[in-house]
Amino acid sequence: MSPVVILTALDLEYQAVREKLAGLRLHRHSQGTLFEVGRLVDGRCQVVLAHVGKGNLSAAVLAERAIAEFRPAALLFVGVAGALHAHIALGDVVVATHVYAFHGGTSQDDGFKSRPRVWETSHVADQIAQHLHRTGAWAGDLDPRPQVHFGPIAAGEVVLNSRLSEHAHWIREHYNDARAIEMEGAGVAQAGHLNRALPVVVIRGISDRADGTKEATDREQWQPRAVASAATFAAALAEELSAEGSTTRSSAMPETNRNIAKGNAHVGVQAGIVHGGVRITPETSRPEDLPEALVGFRSRLWQAWADGHLDEATYKAAEAELSAADQALEGEMPDRRNALTLALKKLRGLVGDVAALAAELTAIIALAQSLS
Known about the structure:
11 helices, 372 residues, methylthioadenosine nucleosidase activity, Nucleoside_phosphorylase_d, hydrolase, elongated, two-stranded antiparallel sheet, 2 domains, adenosylhomocysteine nucleosidase activity
């Protein structure tokens, strides 16, 4: 089961999500970024949590880093925001259906012309979030129960705390359907867009009204109350998205069945349901299957580490050998088959205590040895 990555910008946002997790383990990225990996206290979903700091730029960079490192089923951004409509109460939750990057534009003699970028939340993720809201079970013991609003969120590079400023006028004129305003959603949405439309959902608790009263609402402790609501909704959504991804993967029947036989053994047919005639042809070398096999193995390797079947040192050493295998496969040197096989055999030695991984590697090695 692939994890769900949850990113936050502020410490209190991070802590609100962290309180929803158990069995936390520290994961250090090679460039120094620290992630915490755990499971939802009230669920089965595995969650990767990170603090990205303020702003769309840092959010985009660390979102991309998290996606590459963990290959998640979904990515959520959880935090606080300012409401842009009077009917949205303090403490309510806004779930983005679209994210506007509203600072894009061109400056001309007759004024500044808006050139926004817009990212739409994936249909599947939006449908799951909407259903979760309708059932009402997500709120648990929150009292009073906050309302959940779905709609666009505006993401820029400034904190808006005025109804009268030029910035406020600009938002009302060009983005009047935006429910809330914040500073990281555009970066996260862009990272998701660049990774094969990874489901990305921005979830914001309303802590102020972006109208000049932010200091007062902060003194009244609306930030922790708002982010508690957002974190609660995010935890419930993460569980649903993880289950959806698991169901989709398990229900999809592969188009082909690969069987590897050695020595004098021969494989006839291995399949679920066969329609029509069956034709048996000799096994041929198909190196194009190797990249997909290595990608799948990397996901299961990470899962074994996350589940505690591999220690941190072994996992890092295994990742290094897997990267060496990737490089050998992509290379053009004459001995790439030998280099690939050697890296895979070293990898098998490292994970030998995990029988399923060792068995999978045996099949991958046989496939690698068929390379010409």
